[in-house]
Design goal:
This protein has helices at about 1-25, 30-40, 45-150, 155-170, 175-240, 250-270, 275-280, 285-295, 300-315, 325-350, 355-380, 385-405, 410-440, 450-460, 465-470, 485-500, 510-535, 545-570, 585-610, 630-645, 655-685, 695-710, 730-740, 740-750, 760-780, 785-810, and strands at about 445-450, 475-480. The protein is an all-alpha fold. Among the domains are: about 95-175; about 280-405, 5 helical Cullin repeat like; about 425-445 and about 480-600, Exocyst complex subunit Sec15 C-terminal domain, N-terminal subdomain (Tetracycline Repressor, domain 2), CATH 1.10.357; about 620-810, Dsl1p vesicle tethering complex, Tip20p subunit, domain D (Methane Monooxygenase Hydroxylase, Chain G, domain 1, Up-down Bundle). Helix 1 runs parallel beside helix 3 and helix 16 (about 485-500) runs antiparallel to helix 17. The chain is elongated. The N and C termini lie far apart (about 180 Å). The model is unreliable at about 1-5, about 240-270, about 650-660 and about 780-785 (pLDDT under 50). InterPro entries: EXOC6/Sec15 (IPR007225), EXOC6/Sec15_C (IPR046361), EXOC6/Sec15_C_dom1 (IPR042045), EXOC6_Sec15_N (IPR048359), EXOC6PINT-1/Sec15/Tip20_C_dom2 (IPR042044). Belongs to the SEC15 family. Component of the exocyst complex involved in the docking of exocytic vesicles with fusion sites on the plasma membrane. Keywords: Exocytosis, Transport.
């Protein structure tokens, strides 16, 4: 029942599956067959039955078809058997014909193959010739490139590479050797860059080593040109009756000799003139510049060159530590710098863009600042004026040389003005030593003249004029000492030395005149004045020497106007010019005279003190010796001889006579006042406790001698008893004690007309107490005598009154 129930539903499904199997690809049969087993149980049996039925149907159809075509197949086989016999005959005939044909064509084939082979060879040869004709120029150019590389013609090699790349390589780019060449060209370019850069480094190193030689040659040429120009100018001045400097050092004959010698040197050196191209091979720079330009890397080369040159500039500008010791050190420094900038100037003018004017100006400004700083520092160590002068000449040549190459050098000439001040300082130090030596060697006595020749020789060196002295017969003496003409000559030498620095500074005659006068003023007011003051203060300079120094300064002062004329003759600038500086010799020598006068007064007082220290009074003596003390008489004799020396002071004019009289009078008054003060201090010395009347009388004898000396007019010119007034204090004090006129003193005290107006109560009290103590000691038993008792009471009364006066004075003050 179940099978019957399933039959109608499953048959269509089985047919569908069979259709799918027949119509689909065998690879997809699996899912279809799986569906048979996935259906109801025993469905595959039904399917197999259905499949068998289908197979039986197909077999029946195949059988029907075979039965239908069987007769035709038999007929075809029969015909084919008939054709086989004919075919075998034909095969035999064809084989025979082929054999005979092959035998006949063997020789032709051989000849044909020969012809073909020859044609191929001919074609190949033609092709090879064409390709070789195409490749040969490339190979020739490449060979040329190799030759250029081997002969170091790198710029030409780069041009050859350009031709190869642009013209030749495109024709043969398909060949391997061309590719190898193309791959090798960048390496060759790098090799050329490295080699050219190496040559450039060698060049930079070479010019660094030889820059001093280049600079030396350039400076020498500039110096020769300057000498020629100056000499030609001098020749024109001589021809037209003009001279640049009028002095006894540059006669016209010497100008002619110098001119002739300069022209001879110019002729000799004309053939030896070398340029920077003669000294330096610049081809490495040109070659490297062209190479980098061709390679399109010109900026890299420019930066490298400038960077290296800046480094070299810093090395060149760095001086040696001991450069200031010798002129050769400065010369090497300058020649290296000049050599450096001469090379840069040459590069500037022969290349385009490698070095620009802005670059050289920047480099020069940097170098100039460094040069000025170096010179300012090192020149400060120079103490030798000759070395400073040589340094100045080197700086001038250095500046002129670089100025000729277009570099601004105004700051160098400004620096020279600073160095000029230092040069003047070194000159002042040198001349200070010269002046000291002159003063040390001087004997400070008038110059003896024994013949006319000696007289003329001296006045030719020193402007001395004295008509009265000229009329005197020989031998005679000039009032000044030997140091005066020597000082005058050395001042002129100083002016010459100062003038040497002013030459070639491109300054006007007015400025040179001003510089000479200012430096001469420094010499007079500072150096000579200081030497004179130090000389005056020296212990071994006595009063006689001081008097001679005063005489010397007077004559040096008179010679200052001749020094001004001397400077005027050098510079041709009149003294009447508004801005002309005057010489300060007048004030300088006046100050020296005043110092000498003060020293005279000081030394005179010191000498008086020495004599006073020899005093040996017996302050307790009862009776005087009846004559003045020996030390005082020696002192008075000494003062007489000293004041006699003052008669030698210059009196050749009214002013000098007044001056000499004033000095003598001041010295005499100062000596008398100092002597009076010393004697008064001797009486009032606190260590002196007792003074007897006999000692006062002896002291009075000494004061009388002092008064006699003052009244004898040791120095003319005093009016009346002016000089004696120096001892008036002592005189009134001694008179008061010797006359014992206390009643008058006490009664007239404070009155303008008092006889003892100059006696101070304190002084009188001090001396009276010293005498009172002496009276007590020497008159122990005199108190029993009435007169002595009365005198003692009087002394005590006077002491009390004097004390009251002293106390009153102190309260009033």
């Amino acid at each position: 029942m179940a099978e019957i129930g399933e039959g109608p539903g499953t048959v269509p499904e089985h047919e569908r599956i069979l259709q799918e199997i027949q119509s689909t690809d065998t690879a997809c049969v699996g899912p279809t067959l799986r569906s048979v087993y996935d259906d109801q149980p025993n469905a595959h049996k039904k399917f197999m039955e259905k499949l068998d039925a289908c197979i039986r149907n197909h077999d029946k159809e195949i059988e029907k078809m075979c039965n239908f075509h069987h007769q035709g197949f038999v007929d075809a086989i029969t015909e084919l058997l008939k054709v086989r016999t004919d075919a075998e005959k034909l095969k035999v005939q064809v084989t025979d014909t082929n054999r005979r044909f092959q035998d006949a064509g063997k020789e032709v084939i051989v000849q044909t193959e020969d012809i073909i082979r020859c044609r191929i060879q001919q074609r190949n040869i033609t092709t090879v010739v064409e390709k070789l004709q195409l490749c040969l120029p490339v190979l020739e150019m490449y060979s040329k490139l190799k030759e250029q590389m081997s002969t170091k013609r790198y710029y030409s090699a780069l041009k050859t590479m350009e031709q190869l790349e642009n013209v030749y390589f495109p024709r043969v780019s398909q060949y391997r050797f061309c590719q190898l060449m193309i791959e090798n060209l960048p390496k060759l370019r790098e090799d050329i860059k490295e080699i050219s850069m190496s040559d450039l480094k060698d060049f930079l190193e070479s010019i660094r080593k030889h820059s001093d030689k280049i600079g030396e040659t350039a400076m020498k040429q500039a110096q020769q040109q300057k000498i020629f120009t100056v000499t030609l100018q001098k020749q024109n001045n001589v021809k037209f009756g003009k001279t640049m400097y009028i002095n006894d050092r540059i006669p016209e004959e010497r100008n002619e000799i110098v001119l002739k010698h300069a022209f001879e040197e110019e002729d000799e050196n004309e053939e030896e003139v070398l340029t920077v191209q003669d000294l330096v091979d610049f081809s490495p720079v040109y070659q490297c510049l062209h190479i980098y330009s061709v390679l399109g890397d010109e900026e890299t080369f420019e930066n490298y060159y400038r960077k290296q040159r800046k480094k070299q500039a810093r090395l060149v500008l760095q001086p040696q530590s001991n450069m200031h010791e010798t002129v050769d050190g400065y010369r090497r420094y300058f020649t290296q710098i000049v050599g450096f900038f001469v090379v840069e100037d040459h590069i500037l003018h022969v290349t385009q863009g490698l070095v620009t004017r802005a670059y050289t100006d920047e480099l020069w400004n940097m170098a100039l600042s460094k040069i000025i700083a170096v010179l300012r520092a090192h020149s400060s160590y120079c103490t030798d004026p000759d070395l400073v002068l040589e340094l100045k000449n080197l700086i001038v040549i250095f500046a002129d040389t670089l100025q000729g190459y277009g570099f601004p050098v105004n700051r160098l000439f400004d620096l020279l003005f600073e160095i000029r001040d230092q040069y003047n300082e070194t000159l002042l130090k040198k001349w200070a030593g010269v002046f000291r030596d002159i003063f040390e060697e001087d004997n400070y006595s008038p110059i003896p003249i024994v013949s006319e020749e000696e007289y003329r020789a001296i006045i030719s060196k020193f402007p001395f004029q004295d008509p009265d002295l000229e009329k005197q017969p020989f031998p005679k003496k000039l009032p000044m000492s030997q140091s005066v003409p020597h000082i005058y000559i050395q001042v002129k030498e100083f002016i010459y030395a100062s003038l040497k620095f002013s030459e070639s500074l491109h300054r006007s005659s007015t400025e040179i005149d001003d510089m000479l006068r200012k430096s001469t003023n420094l010499l007079l007011t500072r150096t000579l004045s200081s030497c004179l003051l130090n000389l005056i203060k020296k212990p071994h300079i006595g009063l006689t020497e001081l008097v001679q120094i005063i005489i010397n300064t007077t004559h040096l002062e008179q010679a200052c106007k001749y020094l001004e004329d001397f400077i005027t003759n050098i510079t041709n600038i009149s003294q009447e010019t508004v801005h002309t500086t005057r010489l300060y010799g007048l004030s300088t020598f006046k100050d020296a005279r005043h110092a000498a006068e003060g020293e005279i007064y000081t030394k005179l007082n010191q000498k008086i003190d020495e004599f006073v220290q020899l005093a040996d009074y017996d302050w307790t003596m009862s009776e005087p010796d009846g004559r003045a003390s020996g030390y005082l008489m020696d002192l008075i004799n000494f003062l007489r001889s000293i004041f006699q020396v003052f008669t030698h002071l210059p009196t050749n004019s009214s002013d000098h006579a007044a001056m000499s009289g004033k000095v003598a009078q001041t010295a005499c008054m100062s000596a008398c006042q100092h002597l009076s003060t010393s004697l008064m201090q001797m009486l009032l010395d606190s260590e002196l406790k007792q003074i007897s009347m006999g000692a006062v009388q002896q002291f009075n004898l000494d004061v009388i001698q002092c008064e006699l000396f003052a009244s004898s007019e040791p120095v003319p010119g005093f009016q009346g008893d002016t000089l004696q007034l120096a001892f008036i204090d002592l005189r009134q004090l001694l008179d008061l004690f010797m006359v014992w006129d206390w009643s008058t003193y006490l009664a007239d005290y404070g009155q303008p007309a008092s006889k003892y107006l100059r006696v101070n109560p304190n002084t009188a009290l001090t001396l009276l107490e010293k005498m009172k103590d002496t009276s007590k000691k020497n008159n122990i038993f005199a108190q029993f005598r009435k007169n002595d008792r009365d005198k003692q009471k009087l002394i005590e009364t006077v002491v009390k009154q004097l004390r009251s006066l002293v106390n009153g004075m102190s309260q009033h003050t």
